[in-house]
TrEMBL record:
<feature type="transmembrane region" description="Helical">
    <location>
        <begin position="240"/>
        <end position="265"/>
    </location>
</feature>
<feature type="transmembrane region" description="Helical">
    <location>
        <begin position="277"/>
        <end position="293"/>
    </location>
</feature>
<protein>
    <submittedName>
        <fullName>G protein-coupled receptor 160</fullName>
    </submittedName>
</protein>
<keyword id="KW-0812">Transmembrane</keyword>
<dbReference type="InterPro" id="IPR042353">
    <property type="entry name" value="GPR160"/>
</dbReference>
<dbReference type="InterPro" id="IPR017452">
    <property type="entry name" value="GPCR_Rhodpsn_7TM"/>
</dbReference>
<feature type="transmembrane region" description="Helical">
    <location>
        <begin position="91"/>
        <end position="116"/>
    </location>
</feature>
<feature type="transmembrane region" description="Helical">
    <location>
        <begin position="137"/>
        <end position="161"/>
    </location>
</feature>
<dbReference type="GO" id="GO:0005886">
    <property type="term" value="C:plasma membrane"/>
</dbReference>
<keyword id="KW-1133">Transmembrane helix</keyword>
<feature type="transmembrane region" description="Helical">
    <location>
        <begin position="22"/>
        <end position="42"/>
    </location>
</feature>
<feature type="domain" description="G-protein coupled receptors family 1 profile">
    <location>
        <begin position="34"/>
        <end position="292"/>
    </location>
</feature>
<dbReference type="GO" id="GO:0043235">
    <property type="term" value="C:receptor complex"/>
</dbReference>
<feature type="transmembrane region" description="Helical">
    <location>
        <begin position="181"/>
        <end position="200"/>
    </location>
</feature>
<feature type="transmembrane region" description="Helical">
    <location>
        <begin position="54"/>
        <end position="79"/>
    </location>
</feature>
<keyword id="KW-0472">Membrane</keyword>
Length: 339
């Protein structure tokens, strides 16, 4: 990370010392309150009967850490100036704690995506929904190890600590926060792969979308895609890619559009806001889709197989749904997919 030095800073960066810390503290408190509410809302609305995974445990740990940060900010904001165990806390520490969290979150994207991707690649074909106790303990250990390693890197690496001191010295009333480069790189890579997949299977995707119908199944409205698949020399993997795209975009299309807008506008979002539970579940569904596509021939068509993703149902990406209440296909080779 590069440090920014300035000798003749313009007057627009200087604010009255009496009001600016209060405004920053209040803003950070409100932002963290909204983020924590969103984190726990996503954890509450997700499907409960899903297989345990590294990403699931990490999302819970992130929500808990955000809650701890919110409680610290609220306590300091309320008491303003107090001592605890011989340490004096002021509103300056609200900014300091948020800066440390921003630096920590900013370097987590790569290791989290790597570990989650490897986890799904190795376990996506497992049919057992009840993992061994050792697997749960291993996930907990990996999550704790990642957090400790990143915090150690932030607090012990001299270059990072010096940059934090420089930022606070030149902008004591601004509370400059770290903007992660890793999140932009992950977003760009995901959008690039999604765009390439859409280009490769654009005809199949358009055909599926044009054939969509809303029907009632098990007293629930569902989408039925009835389309004639092209089996003339078409590889199963490329047909599967179309279905994975439709299922993924059917759930996360607004989030994909949001990522595109952020990258297009070059919006600089602080890392403590970027790393959140919805973002992680978005990455989670993407990694699951990639794992399904890479190991499609190892996937067994069992009911326990489809309880992997808390938000996306991948079941009908692998097999057509045949139901006696649905209308018969108009011609041979028609595939009926219900999502």
């Amino acid at each position: 990370m590069a440090a920014l030095f300035c000798e003749n800073c313009s007057g627009q960066y200087h604010y009255p010392q009496a009001h600016q810390p209060f405004e920053i503290s209040c803003m950070l408190l409100l932002i963290m309150l909204g983020k924590v509410s969103l984190d726990f809302f996503m954890l509450q609305v997700k499907q409960k009967n899903v297989k345990v995974s590294f990403m699931g445990y990490f999302c819970v740990s992130l929500a808990l850490l955000d809650l701890i940060l919110l409680i610290n900010i609220a306590v300091i904001f309320y008491f303003e100036d107090f001592a605890l165990w011989g340490v004096r806390f002021t509103k300056y520490h609200i900014c300091l704690f948020t800066q440390i969290i921003s630096l920590t979150y900013g370097i987590l994207h790569y290791p989290v995506c790597l570990v989650a991707g490897l986890d799904y690649y190795m376990t996506i074909a497992q049919t057992s929904q009840s993992p061994r106790q050792g697997q749960r303990l291993f996930y907990i250990f990996v999550v704790i190890f990642i957090w400790i390693s990143v915090f150690f890197c932030i607090l012990k690496v001299p270059a990072i600590y010096e940059e934090l001191e420089i930022r606070n010295h030149f902008s004591p009333y601004q509370c400059p926060l770290y903007v992660s480069v890793q999140s932009y790189a992950v977003s760009f890579a995901m959008l690039l792969l999604i765009g390439m997949a859409l280009m490769v299977s654009r005809k199949e995707v358009i055909t599926m979308i044009l054939s969509v119908r809303v029907i009632s199944f098990a007293s629930q409205p569902v989408l039925m895609f009835s389309y004639a698949s092209n089996n003339n020399g078409t590889c199963f993997k490329w047909q599967l890619l179309t279905r994975l795209l439709v299922c993924f975009l059917g759930t996360w299309a607004p989030f994909v559009l949001l990522q595109f807008i952020i990258l297009f506008l070059g919006a600089r979002i602080p890392a403590y806001m970027e790393m959140n539970v919805p973002w992680l579940y978005f990455i989670n569904s993407f990694l699951i889709a990639v794992a399904y596509w890479c190991r499609c021939h190892d996937v067994e068509l069992t009911e326990e197989m489809w309880s992997t993703d808390p938000f996306v149902s991948w079941k009908f990406c692998f097999m057509p749904f045949n139901n006696e209440n649905t209308e018969p296909a108009e011609k041979p080779g028609t595939v009926i997919v219900i999502c």
